[in-house]
Amino acid sequence: MRKIIHIDMDAFYASVEQRDFPEFRGKALAVGGSPDGRGVVATASYEARQYGVRSAMSSRMALQCCPHLLFTRPRFEVYKEVSQHIRSIFRRYTDLIEPLSLDEAYLDVTDDKLGIGSAIDIAKEIKEAIWNELQLTASAGVSVNKFVAKIASDLQKPNGLTFIGPSKVVSFLEALPVHKFFGVGKVTAQKMNQMGIHIGRDLKRFNEFELMQHFGKSGRFYFHMVRGIDDRPVRPNRISKSVGAEDTFSSDLADPALMKIELLRLSEKVFERTEKSNKKGRTVTLKIRFSDFSLITRSKTLLSPIESFVELESAVMDLLDKQNFEDKRVRLLGVTVSNFLSEDGQGPENAQLSLF
User: Fold this and answer.
1) Which of 48, 72, 96 represents a domain boundary (last residue)?
2) Where is Mg(2+) annotated to bind (predicted)?
């Protein structure tokens, strides 16, 4: 039986800014966006979240929620440096580390380096080290698999630690609201609610075939997850040929201006991930799923690899501007970078490090 820890930094970008700049401490702060209402919020401090400000929200809407909201530009190089320090702390305890982004990762501590034995104690020590060395807080989830550990890390934020032991996994998942299941988005949760599925126990009434009829391949995932079945190992070097991000919207988009806001947010996320893995890609792909579930992808290959966020944003917006929507409404948008150069910069890679 594995011992898995999921570490998730608390309001990571905003917490770094509040640590480094005293004038932001205790204040409602948005990283990303601007006070003139343009752009989107990358993340918000907990003081801002109390007013309903959240990531991916437009600056205009964020200001409506919190008129005294402060804005600051993201400093990705600083966040990357802090993230590398956090990884060095992880490596003191295990070599089995699977980063999901700059601010979260899975750790398999079944065979921990220091022989501590207790995954709970390891999680406590990691949290303490992050605080002592970086003056930042993290939340941790500890359980027998990745799925439950990730859910657990979100239950007592900020600065929380939640343990779901093997004997409690099934009862925990049965009582959990479906919108809290990792992998169940707003749209899917609404569909489940309409089917009378509100908590895990409701979901377990459906067999695998029925769930696949309603949710496609994801139905198989839901069938196993609600039963606490997750055999996925922590994989330190996951292989992929692209880095991307996408989002399904609770309300279909018809306004190109709103689409651009969402694509800006997705592009920021993708660029951060390529920077994190030190990968330079030449091909940008825009993915659009319409309200009728039809899907199109449009790609653009540049002469040289993308070196800046401005280059990525420009390519994405160019692809969007060339699309004729013909009164169609958009359900999903996605951005992907691929066609990476090898480490010597001379040609395409056969395989790249994914950040998922």
Assistant:
1) 72
2) 8, 103
